[in-house]
Design goal:
10 helices; alpha+beta; binds zinc ion; 8-stranded antiparallel β-sheet
Length: 368
């Protein structure tokens, strides 16, 4: 293994990106994150409370195990967040400010809690490729939101392909989550099915599907938003508890938004006309464009569908379709019956003018 001399990042250690000891290794966090372990309590629950800025942590024999998982993971993130590293990962570095924007907007009167939630997000594995555009063509990203009160967490995953040319379509994404209520659970992230798109994705090893989307060769939207109210309640309970002071400070709506926001995809669910709603066109501040895929009439997830699940009254123009069932949009021919594109097509045709582009440069990131 070429990793023979690789040293796990940790307090006082040189960063493998900039070859310096970071003076503020957790600079992206909103609350101070201790790095001097001698000053921390020995008792695992109190130690975890200090390290991770927990809120009323419960008694549990599993705090020690939780620290063993979370602490080294956060140290690994310090290298990927390093501002001076040459191999800086834009997606990774973009994710935290984006998540902060959404979380702080959702909790305008509870800044302390917004900080704690934002600081509970960690990126585990981030693999993306782009062609120098601000949005990426392919992504395979795993992130984790740690519980604010228990030795537990929620894993999130998105796999995303977005390349469209005149003669080919590689356009699909799927989102999934996994609720881990004990750190002793098998923590293996990957499984064969994780690279599937469509209804088979996120069906094994504790994963649950959130939504999926595909553009088929006839350029029809095909999608399904499988996440249920029960799923959102599960995530809410893992992260914030059940009928506790903490759980009451966070709305179910924010929990639903977090499933996307913590993967670097801006998503908001409006309760009133005029509020920010859905996924911004062209990805917004995010780097995955899940709003503009194909004709975009049947996206994998919509704020309208989330309103239904969350029992928020619909807004004007909400698609009444039941997105929990597989949706099929119109084909290109059905949408534009007058349009014909044959072998004698002229070069002014917007479909044929869009030449198949070269394979993108690929950069790899492996963390967990
Ligand atoms: Zn560095
Ligand atoms: Zn491209
Ligand atoms: Zn044409």
């Amino acid at each position: 293994m070429s990793d023979e001399h690789y040293e796990e990042p940790g307090p006082g250690k040189e960063c493998s990106g900039c070859f310096k000891v970071h003076t503020d290794p957790f600079s992206w966090k909103h609350l101070p994150r201790p790095t001097n372990y001698d000053e921390l309590p020995d008792e695992p629950k109190e130690r975890a409370r200090k390290l991770f800025n927990l809120v009323d942590p419960i008694n549990s024999p599993e705090w020690e195990e939780c620290i063993k998982v979370r602490d080294p993971g956060e140290w690994r993130s310090t290298e990927y967040m390093c501002e001076e590293s040459e191999a800086t990962d834009t997606y990774y570095r973009n994710l935290h400010p984006l998540a902060w924007k959404c979380i702080s907007r959702a909790l305008p009167d509870d800044h302390a809690l917004a900080c704690r939630i934002a600081d509970s997000i960690d990126v585990l594995t981030c693999w993306t490729s782009d062609e120098g555009d601000p949005v990426v063509d392919n992504a395979n990203v795993y992130t984790r939101i740690f519980s604010l009160y228990a030795p537990a967490w929620v894993d999130l995953h998105v796999i995303f392909d977005m390349r469209i040319g005149a003669t080919f379509v590689e356009c699909a994404y799927s989102f999934g989550y996994r609720a881990i209520d004990s750190p002793s659970t098998d923590k293996k992230l990957d499984s064969k099915t994780m690279h599937d798109h469509g209804p088979e994705a996120h069906q094994q090893h504790g994963w649950r599907p959130i939504c999926w989307y595909e553009l088929d060769p006839e350029r029809r939207d095909i999608s399904q938003c499988q996440i249920t109210r029960g799923d959102i309640l599960t995530v809410h309970e893992i992260l914030f508890g059940l009928n506790t002071d903490l759980s009451k400070r966070v709305s179910l709506k924010l929990t639903a938004e977090l499933l996307f926001v913590a993967l670097g995809v801006p998503f908001s669910i409006a309760e009133k006309e005029g509020e920010k709603d859905g996924v911004p066109m062209f990805g917004g501040d995010g780097m995955l464009n899940i709003s503009g895929a194909g004709p975009g009439k049947k996206p994998g997830v919509s704020a309208a569908h989330m309103r239904k699940i969350l029992r928020i009254p619909p807004l004007e123009g909400d698609d009444p379709a039941d997105l929990s069932q597989r949706q099929v949009g119109q084909s290109e021919k059905e949408r534009n019956p007058q349009y014909e594109c044959g072998s004698d097509c002229d070069s002014d045709c917007e479909y044929c003018a869009d030449e198949e582009h070269n394979r993108p440069v690929t950069k790899r990131r492996r963390l967990a």
